[in-house]
Amino acid sequence: MELRQLEYFLAVVEHGGIGGASAALGVAQPTVSQALRALEREVGVQLFHRIGRGMVPSAAGRTLVGSTRQIMRDVAAVDDALSAAGDEPTGRVEILASPFIDGGAVIDLVAGFRARHPGVTVRLGDLRVETQASAMIEEGRCEFVITHLPTVGDDLDMIVLGEQEFWLVCPPGTEVPDGPIPIADLPRIPMIFVPRGGSVAEEIESAIRESGVRLPIAVLSDHREQRLPMVLAGIGATLLERRIAESVADRAVVRPVSPRFARTFAMIFDPGGLSVAGQAFADVARSMAAQRAVQE
């Protein structure tokens, strides 16, 4: 088995076929096809199902994806280490974070790590479905996932990073009483939600339904970052992380809700599959979490 074959295998997985993989790799399509056939002969199983012009991994192919991604990360880390001076970690740490997570906490963690290890690049991606957090680690798509709890596989470790509370943010001029707003007394104004798929969004929506309140929905938006501008434009109300809500209290009507919406979030990872850079990142996260616990 050659490293080049594994590189081509991953490219086909990620681009859905020979054509996309060859374009991304900058090699001819027959070269990719030959490498895949050779790899299938060597492992003795079919790695892909051919569907029209596309290709999807077989069960055996899906099993190979995670370990192959880890191999490619390890090879990149070795190359970086050989080209770097001293014992300072190099390479890249790959993280997927839920868009519902407090961005400030993630930024603080990345900043703290980069201050200690400037030779490592951090790649931060979007975890669109929190229920897939463990699968992202197991499939080797990243080394770390930052998501709300509970969501951790049996063989995964976690470091608790904090807790975030969600507050009601209404358009300017909305008449609501002072203090926490009971869910059953939420103002009868159109709401802005994200489609289902994020555990926090579903929990909030379920709590509102269970309270007997039926709020009209003005917008279902995949663009989570557009919810606040929509509120400020008067389209409807929404529930946002407390830090963000308080930052616009001079431009919108902001209230806590009752019962309190608060979720613990953590970083999960496979301790046995970390690169040198990944281990350094985990160490920094533990150190920062311990410091925060002492301060609290």
UniProtKB/TrEMBL annotation:
Domain HTH lysR-type: 1-58
One cellular-component annotation, GO: protein-DNA complex
An example molecular function term from Gene Ontology annotations: DNA binding
Superkingdom in the source lineage: Bacteria
Keyword field: Activator, DNA-binding, Transcription, Transcription regulation
Pfam families hit by this protein: HTH_1, LysR_substrate
Record bears the keyword Cell cycle: no
Cited InterPro entries: LysR_HTH_N, LysR_subst-bd, WH-like_DNA-bd_sf, WH_DNA-bd_sf
PROSITE patterns hit by this protein: HTH_LYSR
UniProt family annotation: Belongs to the LysR transcriptional regulatory family.
Protein name: LysR family transcriptional regulator
Organism, as annotated: Gordonia oryzae
Species classification: Bacteria, Bacillati, Actinomycetota, Actinomycetes, Mycobacteriales
